Amino acid sequence: MVKVSILGSTGVIGKNVAFTLARADTVDEIVLYARPQSVDKAKGETFDMYDALAAEDIDCDLIPTSDFNDIADSAIVLITAGIPRQEGMNRRDLAIPNAKIVMEYAKQIANHAPDSIILVATNPVDVMTTVALKYSGFDKRKVIGIGNHLDSLRLKTYMSRQININSSEVHTRVIGEHGDHMVPLLSSTTIGGIPLKYFMKEVDFDVMRLINRLKNAGNTIISKKGATEYGPSYAISNLISTIITDSHKILTVSTYLEGEIEDVSDVSLGVPVVLSKKGIAMVVPIHMNSYEKEKFYEAADIVKETTDEVLSDLNGV
Question: How far apart are CA 201 and CA 21, in angstroms?
Fold first, then answer.
C-alpha cells in the first residue's frame, strides 16, 4: 500500500495536490493533515473530493486529521504549510516565519514517519529544503524541494507556444534558485533535437522576453487571481508520482549540494537529479557556459546567505 501525507492540506496547494494525486490513481491513501482549528475544513475537502472521485470510479482513502500519528508509514510526506506569498512579496520575505513551521514539521516527520521521503513546497523552497534536512536529521537524498521543476515546465510551455510547436519537442531546464536568481540553461536547450542557437536563426524567437516572463510568472498569476494553484499542484503531484512509481526520471529539484555541481557546497539549489522510490538516486552532471556558471554561483551565494540567516535565527528558538 502506498501512503502519502500532506502537511498543510487545507491550503490552496495542499488540497489541490491531494485531489490531483488521488485522480492519478497511483496512491492508496492520502493523509490530509491540518491544524486542529482547520481539521473540519480538511474533512469538508475530503467529502468533496470523494464525490468527484466517484465519477471516475477511483478508490483512494482520504484521511483528514490533526494527529501526527496518522502520518506513520508514509512513503512521502509533503510539507506545503506556511504563509503564502502575496502580490509584491519576495519569497525571502517569508523565510523566517515559514522556517519555524518547517522546522517543527520536520521534527514531527522524523518522529512519526522516519522512513519517509520529505518533499518540501513551502517558500522560499531552497532555504526550506535545508531547514527540513537539518531538523529531520534525514539523509540528504530523502529531503527534496520542488526546486525548479515548475520553472522548467513553464519555460518549456512558453517556448512551445511562442513558436507554435508541440511542447514535447522542447527540451529545456531551469536550475539555481526557485526565485529571481533562477538560471535557464539555454546553452543546452534543444527544439526537435536542434540546439536553440541554431534554431533561433530560422525563427523569430525573443528569448529575453521569455526569460523575463518566466521570472515574473508567479507574481503575474498572484496579481490576477490571488495565488498560484494548478501549476504548482500538478508539478508537485508529478514529482510524487515519479518517486512512488520508481520511474528514474531526470527532473530539476532542490537538493543539498556537497560539490556535485561546479563545486558548490553547503546550500540547497535546483539541479537535475534522477528520482527513484528511495529519493534522489543521483545528481546529474550538467554543462554550463560561462554566463550560466556565473549566475549559478550568484544564486548559490544569495540562497546560502538567506539560509545562514534563517538557521541562525532558528538556533535561538
Answer: 41
